[in-house]
Records
---
Amino acid sequence: MQILEFISFSGGQTSAETGASRFTFFPFYFQQRALDTNLNYTAVVPFYGHLKNRLFRDEIKFIMFPLYSETRKKEVITDNYLFPVFDVRYGDHVKGWQVWPVFGVEHKKSSLRTNSLDEVETDGGYDKYFAAWPFYFQERGGLDTTNQTKSLAVVPFYCRNHSATRDVTSYGWPLGFNVIEDRAKNYEEHDFLWPLNVVARGDRTVTRVFPFYSQARNRDLESDFYLWPVYKFNRLESGPLERRRTRIMFFLYSDIVETNREAGGLFERTDFWPFYSVRRDMNGDYRWQTLAIVEPFFPNNRSMKREYSQVYSFWRCEKNNKTGASSQSLFWNLYRREATPHSKKCSLLFGLYQYQSGPDGQRWRVCHVTVGKKTARVTAPQS
């Protein structure tokens, strides 16, 4: 049970059968009791406390917080004095200290670890420094690995990140001029007031002056706009599938065309909010609907069509390409017609007038009373 975010109770058996129960009066009192007494803890903030698996840490101890506290996350322990001004960190090859916001340093040695495939790999070390936070940062990562990184930031004047595959240099971060050289993806990019003005050349090509004009493309993707959001175009190629979408004013008008070049299928969908929605799927099934108030915003949500379309769509037309069956409905079945290659049904005034024809003949009904019936003539086979 929880009352707002301040008082909460929980307890009972868990999958681990610890039988733990918790009581919290946030942020002043924390308590847990379990069958395993090693999981018990009590904390009375700010005087004294011991927490386990709370507040994003594996373990927390404190005395007269913020005078002293100790936190543990995995194998790294941090001792804080006058939190967050002074702290010392150690454990799991990590050593560091800080006098925030004046200066801080942290170092981690590289080590070996076993990954999920039971393979031994190198866990790269790092060196981190900061001074006059948040204005000066320096870091080296991936030490003793093949992908070492270096970064230097003098905020807001200069920032540089370097690795074996990618270099990023910024002048006037975050709203100044940026230069990106991505050797792994083989392109170079120049930004000014990113993402408003971007020029990239290589395997990735971008020319953007927001909101007037943009063209961005690579081998599989294309994204263009003119006078955003007046006109927007996207293209995706993934194997045999090609998908194109054209939009005007977000969802005012949308046209989607998907082509399967291998199987020869074609999917088309056109939405003109709120007037109509037209859909033809890969099987050739067809559906037209007027009005379409919600569907353009949730084009892949079948529940919207099933639950809400019946309320406001006064015209619906559907056709099954495989069976040849079709149906039309006007003004919530004021007029309705259903047809197959061998039969036809029509109704008017919500079923007060009905007509049906098929291999067995024709039939008329008025107010659910049969007023005329004609049996089909059967011709005997010739000998």
---
Amino acid sequence: MREHGRLAIDGGTPAVRFPVPQWSDRTGRSMGREERRLVLEVLDSGRLGMVNGEKVKQLQLAWAAAFGAPVAVATNSGTSALHAALIFLCIGPGDEVLVPAATDMGTVIAVLLQNAVPVFVDVQPDTMNMDPQDLERKITPRSRAVMPVHMFGFPADMDPIMAIAGKHGLAVVEDCAQAHATLYKGRTCGTIGDAGCFSFQQTKHVTAGEGGMVIARADSLRGRRLQLCADKGWPREQYREHLFLAPNYHISDLQAAVALAQLAKLEPMIEARRRSALALSSAIGGFPGVTLPPEVPWARHTYFAYQFYVDPGHFTVGRDRIVEAIRAEGVDVLPSYLPKPLYEYDFLANVNMYNETRCPIACPLYQGAMDYRSVVCPGMNRCCSTGIFMQWNEKITPPMARAIAAAIAKVLDHYRIRGP
């Protein structure tokens, strides 16, 4: 018997016997009178759509002001925000876009929807963010853009990424789906590159259930206005005119109403997430072989999620058994954010994208030789094999976090290798 008692997985009593707030419902989301009032305003107006309504316009102005951006355009998802950004920057067939091996598949889908080719860059094993050194190695004459993703609310190392992009003439699109108001050296993520993209999906800091936003450092960079890139290429001041190929990615005024109310709560929600996450880190930080989410002076981690790592050399069992044991203690953890690198998923490994055409890899405009089955990213492999992922939200309090920490500590202590 170890110090913390018998593990629940072995028949002991679970350490956490209260329901932990979840981001999938109101227990973990800050929904209330403000959202209800603005939604009712939309319903009472009868103008539910983007074109005739007011809330989408108000949200775009408020988001641009909050993030210090000249322009903001609302979309119906984070993926569509990324796609609109690539349209805005004139990325297309034959172009390569460098993406991290760790991200939601939506980042990659946005590239493929422009018939461009994603090139996977390894990640740093302690943050799961793009590794600038591997970024430089992966650049070719066909490279046109780079899409760093700020994973879990911690910023990618943007200074070297921007320097490399400038050296090679690459556009930079920041994927901030998990990083609302995350700070990098005093700058807000999403405002450092050419464009920054956000998600309002159920789990995100600001949520409207679904939706997204794209901001840019100028309304037009390569000849296209950003608003048109999510609105069928249609300058609305003209009657039925379309200037270039672009999809309809409208968000509704109902969604915008919820996001507006959420935006007003963003700072207190982030501070609540930080307080509880730091309480958890403080309680489990002393275990050898455990790497915690980074806290550094030059960044503000906003804790979309909480992922830590276990070195198998310090424990008597593997990571998956540790995950099973923590779950049995009443804490809903998963074995890393991704079970495997994105390039190992079937539709990428077997180029099963546009029926049997093998486009865009086989596109005559692309003269590269891409085989995702040969990609190797050691940092990503380490993250997938050692990470332990936990959803996080603003309703988890520091006392709850300490109880969660006690459950994790109980398992880590039981399985840790003790010296002679």
---
Amino acid sequence: MLTLTKKRLPDFLIVGAAKSGTTSLYYYLDHFDDVFMSEIKEPHFFSFYNDRPEFKSSESLNNVVSEIGEYEALYKAARPEQLLGEASTSYLYYHKKAIENIQKVYGEDYRKIKIIIGLRNPVDRAWSQINHFKKFDHEPLEPLEAIDANVIADRMKQGWNTYYDYLGFGNYYNQVKSYVDHFDRVHVFTDFELKEDRVKTVNEILNFLFENYRDYSDELKELDKTYNVSGIPKNRLSKVIWNLTHKKNPIKALAAVLVPEKIKQKFYNKISGKILKPNAMPEAFRQKIYAGYKTEIYKLENLLQRDLSSWKTD
């Protein structure tokens, strides 16, 4: 187990791209008694260590933990024998800054941390991120406008949350390479693999973490299938339920005080799975940004030595 003074810190980090299955993986791993995931999902600690952001966009990034004592407190309920983990999607985008902060906090032990990277077709990821913001009324523009490079650049200059950099979050090659170069043990999965064979994919991740080559298949079959579902409300009733459970209101405020964060999020995710439906991506959206990712995809294939042909449209 990795330590800092007398306090414990994560043994592994999930640094996957936003909207790539990291929320599901967080809850899948948290299900196992030998794993303790941080009390807050996505504390973004290593992205903003001693440098708490003050974003000026309507979505300003919640749950940021920037002080070491507050971060260590996320694991105060963990038992000594449990493996500690954390998941923050900003760590891939802020790869240089996050790795530098990991080195500062862990010192010479930093290479021992296991890194799990979740990836998704970058075009699909951008579409999903935009729809995620729109369903919370955090994105005022239409999708084709929101992915305009000039719009994104202006927003970044104005201090908007970096998750509005819809294109930059999908530039995976340098992001992934940084982690491969700096850490001894890195495991990569794709959201497609997680959806197609959840049991096999999570089983591989558990064996990567514990190195015990055990078959967890029976336990994995009991898990809920999806978390952080993308989409739009199915009908008017679904819209009402969505507003009650996900937007600011007295009921949600009371739940925030009375219900533990992990339980609350599991409930919200189950509700989302029942009331949301997919929002189909227009071909014009795909065509507009695919060309910018084409070289990235081929370079990533060579780096990881794996087939990413399902991401290609040419």
---
Amino acid sequence: MKGHFLMRQEQRDRIDVLKCVRKKLMRLKEASVVLGVSYRQCRRIYRCYLDEGESGLIHRLIGRPSNRAIDPGPREAILRRYKQRYPDFGPTLAAEKLSLDGYKRIDHETLRQWLVKEGLWHKRRKRSGHRTWRQRRAHFGELVQMDGSIHRWFEGRADGDYCLMNMVDDATGVTMSLFDKEETTACAMMLLWEWIGRYGIPAALYTDGKNVYVPSQRSNLRAQESGTAVMTQFGRACPESDFRACQKLGIRIITAKSPQAKGRVERSNGTYQDRLVKELRLAGISDINSANKLLHGGFIDQLNQKFSVEPRERADFHRTALGYDLESIFCIEQERAITRDWIVRFENNCYQLKRQSKYGPASGKVLVRKYLNSELHFNYRGQDMNYEQLPQRPVPVQRQSGTKNKKKYTPPLDHPWRCSWKNRKRA
């Protein structure tokens, strides 16, 4: 309405103070203390009040377009591009993609306000915090969180859900991930192997209580009854004991009691579900191999460059992997029985080991290692044995039909075996 203007509460309070100055009830020096401004600023405000009245206290740019406002032409082009190519992208990711497409670089908050005004984006309710905030670890490699995220990564282009194995350093937020069909032991080993090849052996892993990482409750009860130690295949590669004594990696596994406890990797999973799904859609990818190529072709490096932080301490807690045979560590180990003919049965197949002598094996057990590339290695008494797969299971040799069976001996009635000990002593 013409002749009306909006005024904040702070400006209305200034009017009351300046009225007192005008009536000689207060001096300008005292008014500057009440208003919380300097004496010179108070003189400028009082001069505007005398010249223009109450409207002189209002900012000059109120009701005028901002000096930094974007022209309607580029604004409409940006919104049109957003509707065509990025309809469900968040403001932050959409602003990055629009700048890569050659449009004028705008702040994500500006784009968010445009989208809210057009009805293309809705405000999200902020949830109240429940868990206590935990400070990051001080050193890179001191604690690495590991988790699998089951999600419809390929949307409708592929059937079913797939798993993204994700590792995040607690101190820096550096991430590394790998696609697979499920959260399996082999996938966890491959991802950890890749992390070790790039950064080194971390000091500890923070995982959940799944059977991939730690034994189940039933297995622990059986181990307590039998008095033996039980360990998963992944835990065997990363034992909690001293790595020099067992010649393994020596990575300590810490089990989280809730998803909120390992919130760093859970938050990283949300970032992947927001950004990676849209990247796979734009690239038209619908299979695991192509998705892994996209991850390690620059997507993970972009995430680390954008979201990683510097650790509080410079020391790196990663250890070198030199001297470790990672191929024999990251494998599936099982103990199998070996027959007198040097035959071992594994996964419903029979394998003939090369004889060390014409006699049978001195030990009745052999250690079978199945590598991640499906190679088999039979380790007998600390030595890998040559073997060949048999076409079928060996059949035990049967007796010929011409041979007569030996008749069972039956002692006569007067035989000493049939007499009691006392009768034999009398006789």
